[in-house]
Design brief:
The chain is mainly α. Helices cover 57% and strands 2% of the residues.
């Protein structure tokens, strides 16, 4: 009996303590809430304070003082470690045991951020004017040189040094017109490289890596256009290039639709928009016809979509003209595909479309076969060799128009 009373006493006592502790917590929360309400609102920063804060941030950004394309200390280290590229060596010393570096030809190489390494040393950073000089040198003297071979090695050298330029830009937070002047020739170079090195072995040229960096540079360039207040005379060109390169992309299409009306209706952007619309509507005949009005660099941006477009055209015609008694002239088909007749016949063969001895095409929806991805070598259908350009330097630096190259 005593044990039962003791248990009931302990239970009722614990319940009373629980009620008391809950009431105490509610009162504490109410007091804390009232104190927060009575706390004065934070003062709004004045314009002077905002300017001082922005000035502090600007002063904290490192400013490069290196006036050469390659910092002197890096040149000495790479020369001592035999890490000079032969494009950077003093002519005549390439076969020496320790080749000498030419300060006028050496360019700062890309280095991954490492622990304990100060990447913000002003003596190792090149200001925007030197970076622009470096980009022009890489394109004028290296990429556009007719004497440097093979071009895969030229590309790898220029690509690595452009990554170093990007690294210096990010550390110094280069923006505005300086940033635009640097990004535009880099974007042109990467688009041209995607065309010229199309079909090369992956160990020599990786199109995915090139595409990743190209997309980053394009996005950065478009952000500069949006944030800038001054005129950008080349914006029409690059808005069109971005849409042609990302043909069928919803994001790229939406970006163009949000452009100002004057820019959106400019000739280059309007043509790119029409080509993108034809691609979305699966109208390869109209797309290829409109592509005939593109400049060389614009075709370089579009070229990776052309093989798929031509395959789609053959598929549609295989269903539309599928008849035993129907004959389609090969010359006419080659005009629609914008290919020479021999190349058009090769593409028909890969897709299972028969071409007789009289150069007549026999379409059959049952005979059409999907070609293997490895069989559709995009480079085979380039009608113009990029090595035949009259001025590669002018194309990449000033965007001079060349003839179309489908």
């Amino acid at each position: 009996m005593n044990r039962g009373r003791a248990a009931r006493y302990i239970s009722s006592r614990s319940q009373r303590s629980a009620v008391t502790s809950g009431r105490q917590r509610r009162e504490d929360n109410r007091d804390q809430w009232q104190r927060q309400r009575q706390r004065p609102a934070p003062a709004v920063a004045t314009e002077d304070e905002k300017q001082k804060f922005a000035q502090k941030i600007t002063e904290a950004v490192p400013k490069g003082t290196c006036q050469t394309m390659c910092p002197s200390q890096e040149l000495q280290d790479r020369e001592a470690q035999n890490r000079l590229h032969h494009f950077e060596m003093v002519p005549g010393t390439e076969k020496d045991r320790r080749p000498k570096g030419d300060p006028r030809r050496a360019v700062k190489e890309y280095a991954r951020p490492a622990a304990g390494k100060d990447a913000t040393n002003p003596t190792d950073l090149r200001p925007p004017a030197v970076l622009l000089k470096t980009v022009h040198y890489l394109i004028d003297e290296i990429a556009a040189s007719p004497n440097l071979h093979p071009w895969t090695e030229v590309y790898n050298f220029v690509f690595d040094r452009l990554r170093s330029v990007k690294q210096d830009m990010i550390i110094q937070r280069v923006s505005g017109s300086d940033c635009v002047a640097l990004l535009e020739p880099i974007v042109r170079f990467l688009i041209y490289a995607s065309y010229r090195l199309c079909g090369e072995p992956v160990r020599l040229f990786d199109p995915r890596i090139n595409d990743t960096h190209l997309q980053e540079f394009l996005s950065w360039l478009f952000d500069c256009y949006t944030a800038g207040s001054g005129p950008n005379p080349n914006q029409e060109e690059f808005q069109a290039l971005g849409l042609l390169y990302n043909l069928g992309s919803v994001r790229a299409h939406q970006h163009v639709l949000e452009l100002p009306l004057q820019l959106r209706t400019s000739p280059s952007v309007a043509l790119a928009t029409s080509i993108n619309q034809a691609f979305l509507e699966r109208n390869p005949v109209r797309l290829l016809r409109l592509a005939g009005g593109l400049s060389f660099l614009q075709t370089c941006a579009l070229h990776r979509h052309l093989v798929t477009c031509r395959r789609t055209l053959l598929l549609i015609y295989s269903h539309g003209f599928s008849s035993r008694n129907c004959r389609f002239p090969l010359d006419r088909l080659a005009q629609l595909l914008r290919l020479d007749p021999p190349l058009a016949a090769q593409l028909c063969q890969l897709c299972g479309v028969q071409v007789d001895l009289e150069n007549q095409v026999l379409f059959s929806k049952s005979a059409f076969t999907e070609p293997k991805p490895t069989a559709l070598d995009c480079k085979r259908y380039h009608s113009e060799s990029p090595e035949n350009l009259t001025s590669l330097s002018g194309l990449l630096l000033q965007g001079q128009h060349e003839t179309s190259a489908q």
